[in-house]
Amino acid sequence: MREAIVQSIDNLRANRLRSFLTMFGIMWGMIAVVILSATGEGFRQGNEHVLQELGKNVAIIWGNRTSLQAGGERAGRWIRLTVDDARAIAAESSMVSVVSPELERAGVSVKSLYNAANVRITGVEPPYQGIRTIEVAAGRTLAWTDETQRARVAVIGHDTADQLFGKRRVVGESIAINGLPYTVVGRIRNKEQDSNYNGPDNNEIFIPFSTMMQDLPRTDAPADTVSDIVVGTRPEGIQQIAAVVDHRTGRIEDIQWPLAVNIRTILARRHGFDPADEDALNVWDTSIESLMFDRMIQRMRDFFVIVGLVTLALGGIGVMNIMLVAVHERTREIGVRKALGATTRAIQRQFFLEGFVLAMFSGGLGMAIALGLCALVNVAPKPARFAGMIVSP
């Protein structure tokens, strides 16, 4: 076997140009497969990371004006969401796993011992932090004991903490929100958030919802009115959305999305509007965007892989043709070897080893070059929706 391998390498050296051209086809095919698939995987993971910064499979519900008459009520009236609406969704919806009302006010005066600022204050219940990936780099998040005791505690955004405290430690420090003393119990990690509905989380301060209702209620609506309701969708709900997309017969824009229909049905009974009135509520379901982008990335990856495999197949055809030429050129050599007692199996093994050495060496070289290019790209600055060149098995 060793003698056969050495002889194969010697034969390849004797035909350097032919061997190089054959190896180049396989090498380029391997580079194409790795680079294109790594690009698709990088876009997929980057987009998933950005979506999770806002919240994975999260939906936000706002009240709006009705456009249809229902139950004797005129069209055009405002639907104002309440805390009880959030409780009703949690109790009645089969598509929702967790719910939190949200109450917010912008431009609230906040002071520390070192600086002052006008900041957006958001009152939330503890489950909200899981839905919206409010994760702390220091301290802790809001707890149910804070909610039940109406504690004046705050979790402060990364950039707001820098504005109020500079680079000092913030956990345990006191701040005045609208003149009332609050204790900072946590600082949010720096979030690379490129989508939001009320401003980046880095620029906000989060306090318990019950405390917000007590200290900073809405002045433009009844006392129990909330700004919006945030929900997390169950996996079964995501499957329903995917099934609707797969079996649609018209445009995407005309789809009646299951979660929005489910939420409107529940709240229509409570507020007396027509469940078919799509204008009565605004529902932003991020799982739809996630599903669409994932499918787009998957199609792109499939295309990239097909292109790479076609290129690799062309390299394989090149090997086949080169070996055919090699056999033709060495017909006399084959005859001499058989006359000296070489078996057909031994001669076939010789040519197989030459093709094998070509393929393995050029394939390995192509893989090494592709990995080097991926590492080089990953060193450079990257946009938020691109996680880099990620080579997956």
Description:
The chain has helices at 2-14, 16-54, 83-92, 127-131, 144-148, 158-165, 209-215, 235-246, 258-271, 286-329, 331-339, 344-379, and strands at 58-63, 96-111, 116-124, 136-139, 153-156, 174-177, 180-188, 204-208, 228-233, 281-285. It has a six-stranded mixed beta barrel with strand order 2-3-8-5-7-6. Helix content is 51%, strand content 17%. The chain folds into two domains: 2-52 and 292-379, no CATH class; 58-286, no CATH class. The chain is elongated. The longest helix has 44 residues, at 286-329. It is α+β, with helices and mostly antiparallel strands and 393 residues long.
Attribute tags:
393 residues; alpha+beta; 2 domains; 6-stranded mixed beta barrel; 10 strands; 51% helix
Write the SSE topology:
Elements: H1 2-14, H2 16-54, E1 58-63, H3 83-92, E2 96-111, E3 116-124, H4 127-131, E4 136-139, H5 144-148, E5 153-156, H6 158-165, E6 174-177, E7 180-188, E8 204-208, H7 209-215, E9 228-233, H8 235-246, H9 258-271, E10 281-285, H10 286-329, H11 331-339, H12 344-379
Parallel strand pairs: 3-8, 5-7
Antiparallel strand pairs: 1-9, 1-10, 2-3, 2-6, 2-9, 4-7, 5-8, 6-7
Q: Provide a count of the helices.
A: 12
Helix content: 40-55%
Beta-strand portion reads 15-25%
Radius of gyration: 32 Å
Average pLDDT figure: 84
Count of discrete structural domains: 2
Major sheet strand order: 2-3-8-5-7-6
Element pattern in H and E? HHEHEEHEHEHEEEHEHHEHHH
* Secondary structural class: alpha+beta
How would you describe the shape?
Answer: elongated
Uncertain parts: none
Largest sheet, strands/sense/barrel: 6 strands, mixed, barrel
